Amino acid sequence: MEGQGLDLSPILDSFQSPGLKDGLRNTRTQDHELEDHFDNKLIALAAPAIENGEPVRVMEKVINTDRAVGTMLGYTVTSALGLQELADDTIDVTLTGEAGQSLGAFIPRGITLRLEGDANDYTGKGLSGGRIVVRPPRDASFATHENVIAGNVIGYGATSGEMFFSGTVGERFLVRNSGATAVVEGIGDHGCEYMTGGVA
Questions:
Q1: Domains and CATH numbers, the chain
Q2: What per-residue confidence (pLDDT) applies to 17?
Q3: Where are the alpha helices (DSSP H) in the chain?
Q4: pTM as predicted
């Protein structure tokens, strides 16, 4: 008989440990610390655009622990306007530094994120009409086509919008893209897998 003599008690006993701090099921709510998110500043600065469609220009520094920059801003725009769209570049944000994961995830039309620095994985995930531009700092002395500017899985599941990268990116570029346009100087393996639309 298969499995006969197999003793799982060392694994299962650990679940009964009296010193176990957290239960084996959800027993407390999770604090996502959204009140401290980078986007709160962007949402406040973009209020004239969200409320009246007035063009807004913002410049901020970003660090790699600032994740999903632009996503809450995009939610706020979509929540306020519903099916209406802002004109391209109505909210134009220039960032400097190193962006964390998921820069510009799901941003709608009307939001442009420009980053002078570099970005992490999942930049432009689910891009929904917005624009993302990533380039090295203006005083950089390296050749862009020989250097990585953003991480893996760029533009995953994007449906519309544009992305421009002055440099190369990692693996799985534009996987499941169905409508976005992206320009880049080089990619790793498995680019454009399951891509059904858009332009690379």
A1: 55-199 (2.160.20.60)
A2: 56
A3: 9-13, 39-45, 47-52, 71-81
A4: 0.87
